[in-house]
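3.2 Worked example (two chains)
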Amino acid sequence: MAEPETFTFSESKFEEALRNKTEKREKQIGDTSDPKPNKKRKQIDETSDPEAQQPRTVKAIRVHKFGGPKVLKLEDVETSEPKEGEICLKLKAAKVCWDSIGIVKAVGTGVTHLKVGNLVYYASAEPHGSCIEERNVPSDKVIILPPEVDPIFASAYTQLAMMARYLVTQVFKVKSGHIVLVHAGGGTLCGYFLSQWASNLGATVIWTVPPSTDSVLLEKMVKAAKGAKCKHVIPIDDQRKFAESVIQISLGRGCDVVYDPIGHDDFKECLACLKPKGHMVNFCSCSGKPKIAVSTLAQKSIFFCSPDMKHYLENRDELIQSAMEVFEKIKRQKLQFNVRLKTFRLSETAQAHSAMEKMETTIAVLVPDDDNGDGGWFSSTI
């Protein structure tokens, strides 16, 4: 089988390739940046009005006490100038609790790879607080978004796809012929991308799904698994047993790798699915961290890993390569993700959380209150 395509981009070549494609977008936004690269701040609408020199306020969601969505309040907060190495990011689209897409409104000193008007993806959970009209973020965690990639979809899926990429190509290098178990495949958004990525590399992918007496729900899970290029689906029984079925599917061999987001409750059963020298990857712990006995792992020489993506994106080169490979697959429609996605205004953040809590939507994306789009539901196949 042919080796999978890889995409390696240096920052300068990537941005040179995007320069022509982003000109139209920048003209629409209005790029009036100062040509001097070391100016402390470059603004889209500079003015000599003395009031413009006063501290500005922007709208942000703030929480002052514990509680449900009702404690999410839209308030005015002061914004500061971007410091050295930072940019001021104006909200374009932000997935609730995760990714952020924005327009560069200002740059601090020392920032040369970005300019005012660029539409960018911010790839970091730090600093917290994407539910805000404008905020300052480190420029080394910011990547220009290719014009072909929709910002709504990018905010919804990029981080998940990047997670799937590092799990399948770095934590354990999936190859053609491998048997891969994605435990609770339909229960994690990352599982959809992980399954497709592994299948595209030539692996046989198995999903486990929660027990259900609802035949319609089970049919939906099987359909979702098929859309994620999963070959086998195993409903977990009431005793949360599934290893025997996995061993049968693998003709007694066992899996090369198990990707587990559950942790404590199903850890032993996941270990039972592995072949000798298999890899156990616990990338999330919904039921708590697993209790690991070295003697248990030693019984089949099992390799165990509980990875954190930040250790696989430690420098800008790694970040660029990961994001660009994801964007390329999105543009070429190599990743499909059929889930419910709905947009909400920033002022509707509480409603967005309520909708997710009630399972009225799987993904909620926040957009500015002054956004000219219609909002609402989006087709989520990318």
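3.2.1 Second chain
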Amino acid sequence: MPGYFTKDAAQSSPNDICLFTQSSINRIDLILDLASSWQGTISAALYIDKPEVLVDGKFQQVQDVLDSLSRDPQFNRSSVTISLLFGVAFTANADEVQHPYDHFYPINTLRNLALSQCRTEFVFSLDADFLPSADMYSMLTDPAYFRRLREMSDQKNSVFVVAAWEFVRSDIEYSVPVSREDLSGYCLKMEAIPFHSRIVISREKSHPERVEAWCQGNLLDYHLKITGKTQRGPQQQLTNLDCEEIQFLTNYTRWLAATDFYPVVKGSNHINRHYEPYWVARRSTLPPFDERFRGYSFNKRQHTMELQYMRFQFVVIPRAFVIHRWHRMSDSKQRLSGMVKATVGRAFQRFQHERKTLDRQRSTQAAMYLMDFFT
């Protein structure tokens, strides 16, 4: 049974959007940075993997964070709920044989727990090691802007993609929150790049004017690799769409110059297995995250595929972004090998098989319905 700690906001916007996230309890300090960047509701699910953690005063750390949120004026607009999820070690029988995978970080269970505590119409899915841009909340909750989110979601179930960036080193100095103007500066200095891309021309060997042109959305490709075969047609439309890079479809060249929403265009196969965006969406339309996935790999990809199977439209939000803070490789990623890698791989294969089967069955049922209707 999860435990809950809550700090209510002094006031909340009628167009509030709940940011839901997850983390281990050892990184609870990340919640303060999130609250510095996000002025609305935050629902965070924290994981306690074993009883030994409790002797380290972790519950007191949770209370200390909530006290900080209550005392500091900069957090007056934030409403924060922290949910605690206890690992299998708290209930496991000593004689019970368990699979090592059962002890891995239950990332999708935590996401579902955090999402369940949101009460707003729209929610924002984000991992705790990212920061929302400085003006993102005020922009999205502006009445006219919020109305557009509603209108597009009324027309068709939608996810509104937020461009993801990352700092390339741990020694880069930045203030929280990070503004769009700040991002432009980091882009020019090649200190921030699209998430999961890589620099192929070093700063020393690059031409500053060409880097600047790319950062302004005026150059298709130059110093970064975001996909293996970058091809674009008129108006920065992507033409190679069946690629394997997880952020490619966001189309960063177009985003850098965008002033309005634009659609994510997918390839010949309408289900892209590699796309992993962060997004805002209407809470009532969302499927749960698949809790078979633990640790690192496939957990968010599975959910994005599910949204595609459900025929959600993907629309990119201009100007707003999230930025990943550099950190050492996570324990879950380091342990992704051998039996664990095979286990999560099989879970992803099972999901794909189940979903393809269900999609074919629904298509067959729809075809039979039409035949009966016209005969």
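3.3 Remarks
DSSP finds eleven helices and 13 strands in the chain.
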